[in-house]
Amino acid sequence: MADANGLFVSFEGGEGAGKSTQIRRLAERLRARGHDVLVTREPGGSPGAEAVRHVLLSGAAEVFGTRMEAILFAAARNDHVEEVIRPALARGIIVLCDRFMDSSRVYQGVTGNLEPDYIEALQRVAVNGVIPDCTLILDIPAEVGLERARKRASAVAVPDRFEKEEMQTHEKRREAFLDIAAREPGRCHVIDAQRSEDEIAGEIAGIVDQRLGPSANIATETPEAAQ
Ligand SMILES: Nc1ncnc2c1ncn2[C@@H]1O[C@H](COP(=O)(O)OP(=O)(O)OP(=O)(O)O)[C@@H](O)[C@H]1O
Ligand SMILES: Cc1cn([C@H]2C[C@H](O)[C@@H](COP(=O)(O)O)O2)c(=O)[nH]c1=O
C-alpha cells in the first residue's frame, strides 16, 4: 500500500480516453480544497525515467524485443517510484499518476504476449511495495479514443508508436483493463469515458473524496471557512 498519509491515485485506459484531461481537472479541484497535489506520468516522472520514455516512445524502440521493452518500462517505474512517488506520499502529498503498473500488465503483458508471471515479477521489483490506493480506469471504445488522440495529435504532436497499432490490439487492451478491474474491485473503478468531461470529472471527484474521507475538504475545515 501507499506510504504514510498521502493518497496514490493512478489513471489508466487506452489512448485518448481522457486521462490527462481528468488528472488536470482533479488536481485543480483538490488544490482548491487545500490539498498538496503532485501530477506525474509514466513512462517518465523522474529525470531518469523521462530519458527512458524518450527512447521507449520513439522509433528507436521498434528494434527492442518485448522483454527488453518490459524491463525498460519497469526500470523507469522503479526510478519514478523511489525518486518521486514514495517521497511525495511520505510527505502526505496526493499523487495523481497518468498510467502506472496496469499499463505494463496490459501493453507488455496481454498485447505483448509476455507470460503473466514474468510481468508480475517485474512489477513487484518496479513498484517495490508502492501500489496505488485507487486506480481509475477510463473506459472507451478504442475507435473513439483513437479519434480523440488523432485530433489532439494533429494539433500538438505526432502519434507515438503505440498509437499507430492495429484497432484489434487497442480493443484487446480495453478488455484487458476491464479484466484487471474485475479482478481488483477494491482498488479499481471503471469510469465510462464516453460522457462529457464534466460528468466524468464529477464521478471521479466523488470517488476520490470518498477515499480521502473526512479530510476531503481541508480548505473548509477552519471555523471561518465552514460558515
Ligand atoms: N470527455 C471528453 N469528451 C470529448 N473529448 C475529450 C473528453 N476528454 C478529453 N477529450 C479530448 O480528447 C483528447 C485526448 O484527451 P487526453 O489527452 O486527456 O487523453 P489521454 O487519455 O491522456 O490520452 P493518451 O493516453 O493518448 O495520452 C484531447 O484533445 C481532449 O481535449
Ligand atoms: C506506463 C506504460 C505505458 N505504455 C505505453 C502506453 C502509451 O501508448 C504510451 C505512453 O503514452 P501517453 O501518451 O503518455 O499515454 O506508453 C506501455 O506500453 N507500458 C507502460 O507500462
Automatic annotation (TrEMBL):
It catalyses: dTMP + ATP = dTDP + ADP. ATP binds at residues 13-20. The keyword ATP-binding applies. It holds the Pfam family Thymidylate_kin. SUPFAM superfamilies: P-loop containing nucleoside triphosphate hydrolases. CDD domains: TMPK. It is an enzyme of class 2 (transferase). GO terms for biological process: dTDP biosynthetic process; dTTP biosynthetic process; dUDP biosynthetic process. GO terms for cellular component: cytosol. Residues 11-204 form the Thymidylate kinase-like domain. Phosphorylation of dTMP to form dTDP in both de novo and salvage pathways of dTTP synthesis. This is Thymidylate kinase.
